[in-house]
């Protein structure tokens, strides 16, 4: 964990969070660069000499400074839109290390990706394969394509972020893959030589993930047995992180070792698409207490961050640990931590035992580095928060807080 108290005040690496809040204001996201690099390298190292590519899932946190940091470490990138490709290129990412996932790629996005020469597409339907083929032919190039398989594995996570069951919109049912390969063999615009899957996100139990690996390897063997050449195996992302005190997350090195143990010796180029497990723990959302409010039924701590800044609690009832930035010993209270937005769903924590804080005090919402800022909106005409990157004892703003003028741009 890059966050710890030093002299009773919470630090990110060597920087006191209170200093950042005083200079940049709140709400504000803070990221530890060391933690991001360390966790990317944990993936990369664990693959050892096996041919592999760790494609960071850009959707988890697409700040250019985060992408630049990872590009510098030789990361690949998993993108799901033209906008994400634009960001990767702006950050100096190598297009030849980019895989393009997603169930609804538009013709414009496919053309953009082809013209930039990305590594491969994870295709999710026959119609998409045909479209990629025709656009590649028109552009005079050949596109590498993997089929995204729906392995029908229950990821045992929140239903909104589980993706690998038959009833989900993602992937192609495993039984249809062979026929699709055979039909696509005649297409001249594509090189179809891979399979991919992604069963869900925030997986704390590696069982389903490894079951999916087994299913994918069975499929690879089956396809090869039919004379279909399979070179690439993309196993998606999904590894969970600890949000609650006492929650245990699988170690990156252990999970990758279990994967390589299964895949080794098959002559496959393996890819993974981790997002949350690289950036989640690196980030906090800093917020300031505005009011304390007691109703006959409840105690509320009203803060200046809201569901527009961090949507996860409202959308998934997800838990983010909340710590006071100054840790002078205090009582605890049972309270709801809520934002200023006019919705009952606007809460950051419910019935939470937290330090007895007062107006003006700073709080840090932990493990907010993934799916935090990227899902922020301007709801209630609230300018989006600033983002800060910490590096050792230094820090800098990597995205300025939006202004009122930003709110009306384009209207
Ligand atoms: N690859 C594909 C095809 C994906 O759909 C996703 C995540 C990933 C990789 C990265 O998964 P990760 O390693 O980050 O678990 N907003 C939700 C999470 C949505 C995940 C969507 N897909 C949340 O806040 O929990």
CATH superfamily of the largest domain: Alanine racemase
- CATH level 3 topology of the largest domain: TIM Barrel
C-alpha Rg, in Å?
A: 22 Å
Largest sheet: 9 strands, mixed
Number of strands: 21
Give the N-to-C terminal Cα separation: 42 Å
Name the CATH architecture of the largest domain. Alpha-Beta Barrel
Q: What class, by secondary structure content?
A: alpha/beta
The CATH class name of the largest domain reads: Alpha Beta
Please report which band the strand proportion falls in: under 5%, 5-15%, 15-25%, 25-35%, 35-45% or over 45%: 25-35%
Mean pLDDT rating:
96
Q: How many domain regions?
A: 2
Number of helices: 12
Task: Identify low-pLDDT runs.
Answer: none
Helix content: 25-40%
Spatial shape: elongated
What small ligands are held by the chains? ligand LLP
Q: Can you describe this structure?
A:
The protein is an alpha/beta fold and 411 residues long. It has 2 domains: 3-31 and 280-408, Lyase, Ornithine Decarboxylase, Chain A, domain 1; 102-272, Alanine racemase (TIM Barrel, Alpha-Beta Barrel), CATH 3.20.20. The chain is built from 12 helices and 21 strands. The strands form 3 sheets. Strands 4, 14, 15, 16, 17, 18, 19, 20 and 21 form a 9-stranded mixed sheet that branches. An 8-stranded parallel beta barrel has the order 5-6-7-8-9-11-12-13, surrounded by 4 helices. A 3-stranded antiparallel sheet has the order 1-2-3. Helix 5 packs across helix 6 (126-139). It starts with a strand and ends with a helix. The mean pLDDT is 96. Bound molecules: ligand LLP. Ligand LLP binds next to helix 10.
């Amino acid at each position: 964990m890059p966050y710890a108290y030093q002299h009773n005040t919470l630090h990110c690496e060597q920087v006191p969070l209170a200093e950042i809040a005083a200079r940049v204001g709140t709400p504000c996201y803070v990221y530890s660069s060391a933690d991001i690099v360390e966790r990317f390298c944990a993936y990369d190292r664990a693959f050892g000499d096996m041919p592999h590519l760790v494609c960071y899932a850009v959707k988890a946190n697409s700040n250019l400074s985060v992408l630049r940091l990872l590009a510098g470490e030789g990361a690949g990138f998993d993108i799901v839109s033209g906008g994400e490709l634009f960001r990767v290129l702006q950050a100096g990412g190598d297009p030849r290390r980019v895989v393009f996932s997603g169930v609804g790629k538009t013709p414009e996005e496919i053309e953009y990706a082809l013209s930039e020469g990305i590594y491969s597409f994870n295709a999710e339907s026959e119609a998409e394969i045909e479209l990629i083929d025709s656009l590649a032919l028109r552009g005079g190039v050949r596109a590498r394509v993997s089929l995204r398989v729906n392995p029908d594995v229950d990821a045992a996570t929140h239903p909104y972020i589980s993706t690998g069951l038959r009833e989900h919109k993602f992937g192609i049912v495993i039984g249809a893959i062979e026929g699709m390969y055979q039909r696509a063999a005649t297409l001249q615009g594509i090189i179809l030589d891979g399979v991919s899957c992604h069963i869900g996100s925030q997986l704390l139990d590696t069982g389903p993930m490894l079951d999916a690996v087994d299913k994918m390897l069975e499929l690879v063997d089956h396809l090869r047995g039919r004379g279909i050449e399979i070179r690439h195996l993309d196993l998606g992302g999904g590894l969970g992180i600890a949000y609650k005190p006492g929650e245990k997350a699988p170690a990156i090195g252990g999970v990758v070792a279990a994967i390589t143990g299964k895949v080794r010796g098959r002559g496959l180029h393996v890819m993974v698409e981790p997002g949350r497990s690289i950036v989640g723990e690196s980030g906090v959302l800093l917020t300031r207490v505005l009011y304390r409010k007691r109703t006959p039924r409840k105690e509320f701590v009203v803060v200046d961050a809201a569901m527009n800044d961090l949507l996860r609690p409202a959308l998934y009832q997800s838990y983010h640990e909340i710590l006071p930035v100054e840790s002078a010993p205090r009582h605890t209270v049972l309270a709801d931590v809520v934002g200023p937005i006019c919705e009952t769903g606007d809460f950051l924590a419910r019935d939470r035992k937290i330090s007895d804080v007062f107006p003006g005090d700073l709080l840090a919402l932990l493990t907010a580095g993934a799916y935090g800022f990227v899902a922020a909106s301007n709801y209630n005409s609230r300018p989006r928060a600033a983002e800060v990157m910490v590096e050792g004892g230094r820090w800098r703003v990597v995205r300025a807080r939006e202004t009122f003028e930003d709110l009306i741009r384009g209207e």
